[in-house]
User: Fold Nitrite reductase large subunit NirB from Paenibacillus lacisoli.
Amino acid sequence: MNKQKLVLVGNGMAGLRALEHLLKLAPDQYEITIFGSEPHPNYNRIMLSSVLAGGADLNDIVLNDLDWYAGNHIQLHLGHTVTRLDTERRKVYSDKGAVVEYDKLILATGSNPFMLPLPGADKEGVIAFRSIQDCQMMMETSRSYRKAAVIGGGLLGLEAARGLLHLGMEVSVIHIHPYLMDRQLDEAASRMLQSELEAQGMKFLLSRSSESILGRKRVKGLRFSGGETIDTDLIVMAVGIKPNTELARGAGIEVNRGIVVNDNMETNIPGVYALGECAEHRGISYGLVAPLYEQGAVLAKRLAGAPTDGYHGSVTSTKLKVSGVDVFSAGTFIEQEGTRVLKFQDEISGVYKKLVIHEDRLAGAVLFGDIDDGAELFSIIKSGESIKGREKELLLGIPSDARNISSGNNRLMQMSNEEIVCGCNGVSKGTILEAIQEKDCTSVGQIKACTKASASCGGCKPQVEGLLQLYAGDKAVSAKEGICGCTTLTRDEIVEEMKRMRLMSVKEVMNVLGWDTEEGCTKCRPALNYYLGMLWPEEYVDEKESRITNERFHANIQKDGTYSVVPRIYGGVTSPAELKKIAEVAEQFEVPLVKFTGGQRLDLLGIRKENLPKIWEALDMPSGHAYGKTLRTVKTCVGNTFCRFGTQDAIGMGIRLEKEFERLNTPSKVKLAVSGCPRNCAEATIKDFGIVAIDGGWELHIGGNGGVHVRATDLLCVVKTEDEVVEWASAFLQYYREHANWNERTSNWVERVGLGSIKQALESHEERLALQSRIQAALAVTTDPWKQIIEEPELRKNFESLSGAKVEQ
Ligand SMILES: Cc1cc2nc3c(=O)[nH]c(=O)nc-3n(C[C@H](O)[C@H](O)[C@H](O)COP(=O)(O)OP(=O)(O)OC[C@H]3O[C@@H](n4cnc5c(N)ncnc54)[C@H](O)[C@@H]3O)c2cc1C
Ligand SMILES: NC(=O)c1ccc[n+]([C@@H]2O[C@H](COP(=O)([O-])OP(=O)(O)OC[C@H]3O[C@@H](n4cnc5c(N)ncnc54)[C@H](O)[C@@H]3O)[C@@H](O)[C@H]2O)c1
Ligand code: SF4
Ligand code: FES
Assistant:
């Protein structure tokens, strides 16, 4: 069979989604050619905001790599812009001389950012935020310049501004209206948003109309009507988009605001289709991915000759992707004639909710501060069902069990398999079910890895969780199994019983809670020992024999049975005298290897067990705890002490934190880092608790990991003073101590419990102080283990006869 020729113009998210569907439906029907102006394979444009804000890497956002095109036998013309269409002869022409014939043509040329035609708009340093190139330009600019102005306080402008703040720039957002995100929020929600963003360091100039851009070759400032000016080294225009219709218009295809299409995504010219941001369907051009994905599914069916009801338009929802701020908006968000409005506002906890109701149906919603119900409300809006009698419940919060599994009449169950659950990534219910039922995914994390659902804005997470609970059946139950083979009790049940019955020893816990084994095992014994120490810091006597090998000997066992010694060097700052002493000890004990660790400390390797106390004595330095489930190191950059970019004293902050938390027992090892500016030389965003200085304050990040599964941190909050850093760090670490499973790193814990729940737990000042006082009580009873062993002959004796210690994982 002769294949038909299909040409796609526009290598973006909409066009490629349609092709992906088509290749599934009719893999051999077409010989496919794609033209794309950008020099990259199809990438996730929405993730550019995360790239700018440090939450993702450019390499992570590619959706279809070059192998995908090759594997599907697609002729790809990257860096080619199609400049002419001949719809009579059915040919497309690119700027680089390629000419390709088609039987069917898809236009998916997206949008162009709207650039205000201000005098001076052509100067260097005036850009949009649309592509990888724009993103790279902002990153590069932040290395040499300090001030940025973003024109437009909509979704894109605020996400750009957050990214620029992260890059260390001083950012002003200029907005033409009196309040931000006027296309998605009402004034009350917008004001709350503004104050949150101000707390993060953003400055706002509202009700300003930009008049001209100042500077010679490069932008130097911005003038507003009325004469007011501001200095700036960069201007990002984010004032909306306009469908890219030039090519279609030039070919005589009907164009209004966008390329006009019918319900089959067909233009007025036979064989020519359009979808995505460039298209206009029933008078609407969409600027979000969910509708584009829906259009893609319809177009694919149409091209494959499969039955389809056609595309009938979309109701949209948005979620601002700015770390630390939760905003959701869907449908009609401003009261209109014939609508009823219900509002809830709690200024203290910063929560605002508004429902717009039309004839007993939910027409729209705005949520600020607590957006857990967003996905569910959106689904109710789309279904058009009556909410009579349930209005208050919907406003005040859907109980999580009702959100996930309610008896019988459950919306998640009723959803068809084609319905999209994750709008950002176009993941349908069917795909998630496949992941659960055929690929054995039993957690949201696994579903995310498998399908990308919940991987972008995170707004669909409650629904993904709900589907998991509904469809994983026994497998989901098995996730709740006991902490080890000796018991069926979970960590939470054990800790609860320890508290309730004031259980005080490992043996007692095993007896009272009916352990299946007499002595427990290498999993439960150290876990119980940790939980008891955490609950009763003053009364509980640590059980040395329940500790893992390294913690029993206060040194890391190596593969040849020798140990390593890492003395504490606060903040990684040492002195000539200290270095001399370490060198002398290394010589005296003929230490085979002296090496810097990844955490900026000195490691003396190859020490025999019997020499450990002698070396500790000779060093006369505190233990660096490089071996334990405890605070390891606080890595620092030089900060403003020497570095010309530094805005804060990173070294001082790091030393203070290391002195504050050394010797702390934690569920798993904990690493901190402090960077003196957003250049982040101390790599704080892959630490358990990372501190990054910004102008006038500190960003506090949590849950990072640079190990096997690299995870970048989530932004917890932004604070102004060093005391606040210590308060938040204390509260976070204590909350982690009290809630994580033994041996669970903060990265896994944050993923498991969700950033939102941690933020909520720490948001009250009183609660933070209570956590801080509990961590101080735990720290108060700790002593330096090396010193204790050196001074107590009984303990020291243990080291003389040690042999054949077992390495435990
Ligand atoms: C920073 C940012 C964050 C966003 N965040 C979100 C979000 O959180 N949620 C959401 O739903 N949406 C978000 N969006 C919007 C979303 O990314 C777009 O709606 C979506 O990418 C549009 O897809 P598209 O394929 O229609 O257009 P595009 O992605 O613009 O793709 C069109 C492609 O066609 C190419 N092209 C154009 N003309 C030609 C030609 N003549 N020849 C060859 N190639 C051509 C363009 O170079 C482009 O690569 C965001 C957008 C940005 C910029
Ligand atoms: N999280 C998300 O869903 C997300 C994130 C980024 C972008 N996007 C999408 O990308 C597209 C572009 O986003 P956008 O924010 O540029 O568009 P937008 O139209 O949503 O917002 C533009 C904002 O700029 C303001 N504005 C207009 N003229 C101005 C002027 N002269 N001076 C100052 N302000 C002015 C408008 O009042 C409006 O609030 C949209 O379709 C948006 O939905 C979505
Ligand atoms: S050393 Fe510290 S202060 Fe200097 S650029 Fe790096 S992160 Fe910024
Ligand atoms: S809806 Fe944004 S990640 Fe799923």
